[in-house]
Amino acid sequence: MNRKRYFIPLFLSALIFLLWTVSPASAGALGDIKSKGQLVVSSDANYSPQSFLNDKGQLDGFDIDVSKEVAKRLGVKVKFVTPDWDLIVAGKWAARWDLSIGSMTITRARAKVVDFSTPYYYTPAQFGVHKKNTTIKKLDDFTGKTVGLGSGTTYETYLDPNQTLSMGGGEKIAYQVKNVKARTYSTDMEAVQDLALGDGVRVDGVLTSGFVIQEASKKGIPIKSVGAPVYYEPLAAASDKARPGSADLVKKVSEIFQAMHKDGTLTKLSMKWFGFEVTKKAK
Amino acid sequence: MTPTDDAQTTAKDLGVTEIKLKHIEEAKKAKKRFVLWVALVWVGIIAVLLIVFNEFNLDFKFMLKYLPFIMKGVGTTVYISILSIISACILALFGALGRLSKNPIFYGVATFYISVIRGTPLIVQIFVIYLGLPQMGIVISAVPAGIIALGVNYGAYMTEIFRAGIQSIGRGQIEAAHSLGMTYTQLMKRVVLPQALRLVIPPTGNEFIAMLKDSALVNFLGVWELFFRAVKIGRQNFKSMETLIIAGLFYWMVTIFFQYFQSRLETRLSKGTRSVSGMTH
Q: Which of A105, B13, B186, B240 has the fewest CB atoms within 10 Å, counting from its CB?
């Protein structure tokens, strides 16, 4: 029998087995960040003014400035990565990045895979329609209509009859619309662009952040808001629950956020990017 | 006056070489006419497309502004594709050897690999490799994960190309090598692979051109290649169509560039075959 023949498969199986059992040692998330001297933040660069590419092609926006400030207060440098939103909210980041400071809404479902910090700002969930629309004037008028929204967003959960949206604080959300058909896009931005094609061409309206509607309107998209915001989302930093020391990391980030709320840093950044106060809880 | 007389005089007048020259000249003219017509058809289609695109209400000022930023993705797209095609070639070579192997383990591994990879979507493989490897303790960032996924995927398809190349080598040559006492490795290295390579290169070029465009799928992992840049700029400005058209044009241009090299390589390789066959006849 030729022994050499079986060497390669045996060797490969041994290698795979080895890789399986050896997992990297870790000093906890916070310790790792400090020893590397670098905080890696994931950002979903699809939304202006939160996170977008500026004229120089660099990441810029409210979330980016907040991330830089958090890194500064941790005493480390900051680095950004831009994975798809679905990869960020799914957890299991394998320490490829340390923190999401990307306007993530605190929800119960997400809290199963990520640890949340305290909120750093709040965004209104807002229905919008085409500027030329005359039939939808209040939230009730959306009954039986098709509304576009982004995949993996709280808006999707809100309109899904089989799910109840529940924010981190446990506050119940009062439903003001019934029988609305949701049409899911890869992000909110595709929904808004489809609405721009014309009133009712593909969708009758959109459900997105009030800031998106504002920004779209500013950039010449024929869109207007309908009704008051249906709920306010608390947005927070998140850390991968599967990572050792994740809870300590978000605790530290929460402390930094509280200090930033107190000393007016967040308000200053809010004025810089939104032109008004978004970091205080509404209502 | 007989027709044979007539033929004889023309043959005398022109001479055999002149008749040949006339034929070549006519063929050249016909070729020129053909090329001219093809160019006209292309220009016509482009003109029609421009009219159609004009109907899209594109914001050309916006497109010009972000053209340089999107163009920077060309380098990333090309280098990811080059590294991926290299890994695909290595995998395809082993895949083909396994596919032709009489050892049940090698044959089993190779056929399973081909079956699974060809039977599942590339986008699924990209996510499984990106999310799955860390579960085994191998944490790689987006670019290498994308390269591995593209390499593994194309490797499976290209296994069949490599197998055909290897099988094209005549039985006689292999028997001759065996009778000279060559081992399997020597036979592959010295006889089969150098000849198979000639047949394998043109379809591999074709796969590379397909890969240039499939590499757009790694944008989901956050790689700043052509498609990623176009999508991000398009979304935040609510002008996705404009930026996607820019990306499309760049993909097209890169493809034309590599297609030119592929066709030149193909002509060169086929020239080699002709002269070899000419010698044996």
A: B13
